[in-house]
Every structure is written in C-alpha cells, then in structure tokens.
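Appendix B. One record, verbatim.
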Amino acid sequence: MNSRERVLTALAHKEPDRVPFDLGGTVLTGINVKAYLALRNYLGLPRVEPVICDTIQQLARVDDDVIERLKVDVRRLAPQSPSHFHLEIKDTEDGQYTYCYDEFQIGRRKPKVGGLYYDMFHFPLSGNISESDAERFPLPDGADPTRLIGVEKSAKKILTKEKRALVMGNMSGGIFELFLWMRSFNDGFTDLVSKPALAQKLLRRYTDIQLAYWGKVFGALGDSVDVVHMADDFSGQDAMLISPSSYRRYLKPLHKEMFDYIHSHSRAKIFFHSCGAIRKVIPDLIEIGLDIINPVQVNAAGMDSAELKREYGKDLTFWGGGVDTQRAFDASHTPQEVREDVKRRLHDLMPGGGFVFATVHNIQGNVPPENIMAMWETLQEYGVYSR
C-alpha cells in the first residue's frame, strides 16, 4: 500500500496497513524551524538552510530526506503570493522587532531577541467604521491566477511520482479569523452584538474571496486534490469564544456554502481546523458536510479522544490528536511520557480507520528531538493494523 492509498483508505473509514502519518502536510501539522533543525541534527542528516514555508508561524518546509526517513504520507501544495505582492520584512526603528504587513494589510511583528512568531499589532479595519467603509476597503483577489503558477506540475509529481496524498492549502485564514484580524478582537466581538449587519457584511466579503480562490484551484487541478485545508478558530481551552447560537447565526451558513461548493466541484475531502473546545458544534459541522476535523485538541474541555471517536467516528476523520502538544510533548516531559500519550491516542482513535496521525497542532520550537522520535517510534510500533 503506497502513501496515497493509505491516506485514502483511512479517509474512507477503513483500516489501511498502518495509521497514515502527517508532518508538514498543512501549516497546522508542521514543525517550528528551531525544532526542525534540531531534529535533522539528531537524525544525522546533512545541514541545510531551512526554507520557511510559513513566515508568521516560523514553520520549516519538511525536506525530502526527512519525509523519506519518517515515512510521511502527505504532501502540502500551497498557493503563492500573487505577482503584485511581496511580503517585505523590515526592522522597527528601535531595532527591537522585525515586522511585515500581509496582503490584507494586517501588521505583524516578532521580537528580534527570543521571538518565535509574528504577532498581530495592526488591525486595518479597527475603530469606528461604517458598512460602506467595510464595503469599500480593498481586499485581495482570491481568483488571481498567479497564486497557482506551477501547481499542476507539482500536483502531478506528488500524485504520480511520490504517490502521496495531496493536501491543497487555503489562501488565508478562515472567514471568522480574518474578521477578527481585520477589525481587531475587541471591535470584532463587539460587532457581533452591537453591529451585526457590519459583521455579516465583512464575513460575506471574506467568504466570497475564498470561494473565488477554490474556484481557481479546481479549475486548475480538477479531481487531483485529495484534501482541501480550511480553518476557523472560534474556541478556547475551556469553552467556545462565541456561543453555539452565534456560530449557527453568523458562521454556519457561510461554512455550509463553502463546504457545498467544494463538494460539488471536486471529490476532495474537507479538512477543517478549529482549536479548543469545539464539541458543542461538532454535530453542526457534520450536518453541513465536514469530512475531517483538526487538531483534535484532546486536553480542551469536552475533547476526550475516546469519547470523540465513539460519538463521531463514523462521520468524521480525526486528523491530529496523536500526541498532546501541551501536556505530554515539550521539553518538560520525558520520551517515556510521550510514548504513553501516543499509545493512548492510538488506542482511542485508530480502530476502524478514520484517523491520520499528527500532533495536536504544530511541533513547537522547544520540543526536543528525542520526544519527536519517541512519538514516531511509538507510532511505528503500535500504529499497525492487525490482519
């Protein structure tokens, strides 16, 4: 069974030869550049200049030798910036930060000393704005064809030469994420209560951008895409950031519209990322056609891996949840603790297929290579389906 067959079998809720493994197949199942370099050194692989595939999160592109060594089953195909836009990294005048503005004009910065990520500091639509201001504000063109230059050739290589599953990345964060990042968190959450028409107008615009993007993707790649990657964070550790009723009012109809569009224009499965305690709306996501849930944050309220599999395993594939990145994986935990956590997650999530192994979110910079390899070795030992 090759990698693509293995993933497609799992997505069909059947048991392949072993649990598929993802590292770097999305920008939410990747690895921080610091941890990546340490892992390469631990594996005795040649020193390389790492390629940053996600500037904001400082994720390293996983090179071919690591993919082969760790038997990674998934490859990510990502859009590039449109031809008219280049992400320019600059230093602040005081020399304390590097900063940039993305194509939505959101400003982000990273401390030059000890910084690991780019955090938001500028929200371009914050403050007292009208609905007409929201309508007039210039937004990127989701249908810009230069985003997809070279994707057909890359897809063919992934599918026919490497025989790995192909995940197509989105052009931006989710519609609710963009809403908060553009308006600011204070103004955005306030809008949902005091200016719902404004909130809905902005969410509509962000939805239209993404629909235009996916239209271009399927026009270029047709049925070559195995999985499309979407995301929208609306939950925290202990509860949702908006109420389930607000989710159903503002986001669910738009998510359904996008899910319906993708399913009607492709055979791709929909991978949807939402961190935290999302259990109260999992039935809603299933109802509107979701195929794959990520990251399966097993330590958040109501997100016990065994309970999720028992209740939703016939409807959803769990992509992630393989090891608890908060409470079993960083430098404060031993390789043995990692092994025990991985064994528990395999026991809970792998029966009957419907499981692609990945960490709960990206591997952070402070995760030692010994822990990464303890995770991987445990997967190789216990992630095999009996025949």
